[in-house]
Write a structure and sequence with these properties.
single chain, 357 residues, mainly alpha
C-alpha cells in the first residue's frame, strides 16, 4: 500500500511535540499580511505545501499570529470620508466620485492598493509594520519609530513566507543564472514566468545553491575530518570547485541539501540572523555570507528538540523534498535526539544479536 509522504510527514509533525517535549517552538513569521503577494503562480504550485499540512503544523506549534484587520491595519483604515475620497481621486480612482458610504470608499482603497502595492507592506499602517518588526525582534517593543524608519526596516527585513530568492530577481538576473548553469542558451527568448519556472526546477540541484552556505574552510574541515583529503594540506585558494565537487559526492545528510533556508530571499536571511542575536551592524552584506551565518545557527538549533521540530515543519512547508529525503531526515532527526548514547546502545544491541548466531 502506498502512503502519500506529505500525509506521513504531517503525522510526524503532529506527534513531534510529544517526542521532543512540551516546549513548542514559536515562529512569528506567520503574522498574516494582506492577500496579495509578489510570488508567481508557478512558484506557489511548485513550493507551497498542501493546505492541510500547513494547518496541522500551525496547530501543532500554537504559533502566535494575528489576522490582518481591514478596519485598522491599512494606512488609510482610520481616514475619514473626505480624506479617503480626496486621496482616491488624486490617485486616479474615478469611481470615488460616486461612492456614497465609508464602506464603498474603503473597498475602493482596498482594491486599488491590492493592485498597486508592491511590496505589500507599503499599504500597512504604522502600527502594523511596527507589530511585524517587534514580533521578529527587529524593533524593541518600547520604541515608536517614525513611518520613514519603519519602512526602511521593512525594506531591509520584510519577507513573505512563500517568497523564494528568485522571486526578487529581475528578468536579466533570472536569465543570467540559467545561462551560467547551462540550462538556457544565451540567445534564448523566454517570458519572465518561463524563466522563473526553469529556475524553480533547477535551483536546488545546482551545487552552488547548497554549498554557497559553506565557506572553503568549512568544506576543507569536513572533508579532512573524514579522511577524504589530507588535513595538513592548506586550503586551495583557487580550487573551490574541486572542494565543492568532492563534498557534493560524499555528503549524504539530506537535511543539509534540502534545508529550507537555502531558497530564502536575502531579507528573510537577515531577519533570521537578527532573531538569533546577530546585531544589525554585524550582518553580512553578501548572500554567501548570509547563508554561511544562517547555516551555523541552523545546525546549532538542529541539535535541540525545538530546533528539530522547527526543521521538520520547514521541510513540510518547503515542498522541495522528495519522499525519500523527507523520511530520511525524519530518521536522522529522531536519531539525533538520542545523541551518541543511542548510537552506542544500538551498536551494542547489534553486536549482542550477532553473538547469538
Amino acid at each position: 500500500m502506498r502512503i502519500c509522504w506529505p500525509f506521513l510527514l504531517s503525522i510526524t509533525l503532529v506527534n513531534a511535540s510529544s517526542w521532543f517535549g512540551s516546549s513548542d517552538p514559536v515562529d512569528c513569521s506567520s503574522i498574516l499580511s494582506p492577500s496579495s503577494t509578489s510570488t508567481s503562480s508557478s512558484a506557489n504550485q511548485a513550493y507551497s505545501a498542501p493546505h492541510s499540512i500547513s494547518n496541522i503544523a500551525a496547530q501543532a506549534t500554537h504559533e502566535v499570529a494575528r489576522a490582518f484587520d481591514n478596519t485598522k491595519d491599512y494606512l488609510y483604515s482610520t481616514w475619514d470620508d473626505s480624506h479617503l475620497r480626496k486621496w482616491l481621486e488624486e490617485h486616479g480612482v474615478v469611481e470615488a466620485r460616486n461612492a456614497k458610504t465609508h464602506t464603498e470608499l474603503t473597498n475602493l482603497a482596498n482594491h486599488y492598493f491590492h493592485k498597486v502595492s508592491d511590496p505589500v507592506w507599503h499599504s500597512w499602517s504604522d502600527s502594523y509594520m511596527r507589530e511585524w518588526l517587534v514580533a521578529h525582534n527587529l524593533v524593541p517593543p518600547h520604541e515608536l519609530p517614525s513611518r520613514e524608519t519603519l519602512m526602511d526596516h521593512m525594506k531591509h527585513y520584510y519577507y513573505s513566507v512563500t517568497e523564494k530568492v528568485w522571486n526578487t530577481w529581475s528578468e536579466s538576473e533570472l536569465k543570467a543564472w540559467l545561462i551560467e548553469h547551462g540550462i538556457l542558451k544565451s540567445d534564448a527568448k523566454r517570458q519572465r514566468d518561463e524563466l522563473v519556472e526553469l529556475v524553480e526546477d533547477h535551483y536546488m540541484s545546482a551545487s552552488d545553491s547548497v554549498w554557497g552556505a559553506w565557506s572553503d574552510s568549512d568544506i576543507h574541515e569536513w572533508l579532512a575530518a573524514r579522511g577524504y583529503i589530507d588535513a595538513t594540506t592548506s586550503i586551495p585558494r583557487r580550487k573551490r570547485d574541486d572542494l565543492v565537487n568532492l563534498i557534493n559526492s560524499k555528503y549524504s545528510d539530506v537535511s543539509e541539501k534540502s534545508a529550507s533556508y537555502l531558497v530564502w530571499p536575502d531579507a528573510r536571511l537577515r531577519a533570521y540572523l537578527r532573531e538569533h542575536g546577530v546585531a544589525e551592524e554585524a550582518l553580512p552584506t553578501s548572500r554567501p555570507g548570509l547563508l554561511q551565518e544562517t547555516r551555523i545557527r541552523w545546525v546549532q538549533a538542529s541539535t535541540q528538540p525545538e530546533g528539530i521540530f522547527a526543521k521538520l515543519r520547514a521541510l513540510a512547508n518547503s515542498g522541495v523534498a522528495t519522499a525519500k529525503n523527507a523520511l530520511g531526515w525524519v530518521h536522522e532527526a529522531t536519531f539525533k535526539v538520542g545523541g551518541e548514547s543511542t548510537k552506542r546502545d544500538g551498536d551494542e544491541r547489534i553486536k549482542n544479536k550477532g553473538d547469538e548466531f
